[in-house]
Amino acid sequence: IPFCKKACHYCNFHFSTQTTLMDVMVDAMCKELTLQKEYLGGPIQTIYFGGGTPSLLKKEHFEKLLHQMRTQYQIATSIEFTIEANPDDINIENLSFWKHIGVNRLSIGIQSFQPYALEWMNRAHSAEQSYQSILLAQQFGFNNISIDLIYGTPKMTTEDLISDLDLIEQLQIPHVSCY
Description:
The protein is α/β, with parallel strands linked by helices. It is built from 6 helices and 5 strands. The protein has a 5-stranded parallel sheet with strand order 1-2-3-4-5, with helices on one face. The model has no long low-confidence stretch (mean pLDDT 93).
């Protein structure tokens, strides 16, 4: 899902901050799901909405994509269903909807718990939002959480990294991708 609220300074992925083409992109993805139907054999074991920022998708977009997947493919009864989300998109409404459609794993783009590092990265969320988003997701029963962590940014000290890692351990995050 190649759409983002802001352009993060470190990102080299293809994305757009212009979300006006989101409907067109979802329609194209639905068409691609049909065109590639024969490519995938057996039942689908994993669904992963990556980005950009999939948490920007509207409910209708998720429903349309999932309907197309269910129509075109056999989906296993027990799958890992992941959505990449930014902390500022994690709220009661979204978590409830994601649970409803079967999401059972969140990959949260925390990047850092250091305010100055988030500012340097041009992130749309605060360190406090990062922390609160994890707590809220856990309260909603999302225990399979992965977070992205960026280290080695200008002015980041070893102590800052250790502080981030200590907080991650305290929050009992089972998976961390470090960059």
